């Protein structure tokens, strides 16, 4: 079963650093997307359920509920389980990468290679492919 995308792609950016969110939004503006934002895990879950994003950029280190837990919760719920997720994190150990990759389409280490991130997002949005 494939995920049904919005007419204008919607990306949920989940990170607790406002400057980082603005940088990502600025860099991805040419994709013609709408952006939703969340600064913590609990807000990310509500934004994912209510905002119905086409893709989620998810940090691992978040206040109140970490990104790995957010991802696990989203993958268990029918309305959100097919949304492609890309992790973005300063945590770059092999264990972290492997754990994150089990439930997500990709993992990017901060500082981000924004060109590579933009290409990967465009690929996921235009093909409509979700790995899970």
Query: What strand order characterises the main sheet?
Result: 2-1-3-4-5
Number of strands: 5
Radius of gyration: 13 Å
How many H/I helical runs?
5
If you had to describe this structure to a student in words, what would you say it looks like?
The chain has helices spanning 18-28, 41-51, 67-76, 94-101, 114-127; strands at 10-14, 34-38, 55-59, 85-89, 106-109. The chain is an alpha/beta fold. The longest helix is centred in the C-terminal third of the chain and has 14 residues, at 114-127. The mean pLDDT is 89.
Key terms:
single chain, 132 residues, alpha/beta, Rossmann fold, five-stranded parallel beta sheet, 5 helices, 41% helix
Set down the secondary structure blueprint.
Elements: E1 10-14, H1 18-28, E2 34-38, H2 41-51, E3 55-59, H3 67-76, E4 85-89, H4 94-101, E5 106-109, H5 114-127
Parallel strand pairs: 1-2, 1-3, 3-4, 4-5
Helix pairs in contact: 2-3
Short description:
The chain is built from five helices and five strands. The protein is of the alpha/beta class and 132 residues long. α2 packs parallel to α3.
């Amino acid at each position: 079963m494939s995920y049904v995308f919005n007419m204008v792609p919607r990306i949920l950016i989940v990170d607790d650093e406002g400057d980082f969110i603005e940088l990502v939004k600025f860099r991805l503006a040419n994709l013609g997307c709408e952006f939703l934002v969340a600064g913590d895990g609990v807000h990310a879950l509500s934004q994912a359920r209510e905002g119905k994003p086409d893709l989620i950029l998810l940090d691992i280190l978040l206040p109140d509920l970490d990104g790995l837990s957010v991802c696990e919760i989203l993958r268990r719920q029918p309305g959100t389980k097919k949304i492609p997720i890309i992790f973005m994190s300063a945590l770059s150990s092999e264990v972290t990468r492997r754990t994150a990759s089990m439930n997500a389409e990709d993992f990017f280490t901060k500082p981000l290679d924004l060109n590579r991130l933009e290409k990967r997002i465009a690929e996921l949005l235009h093909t409509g492919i979700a790995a899970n």
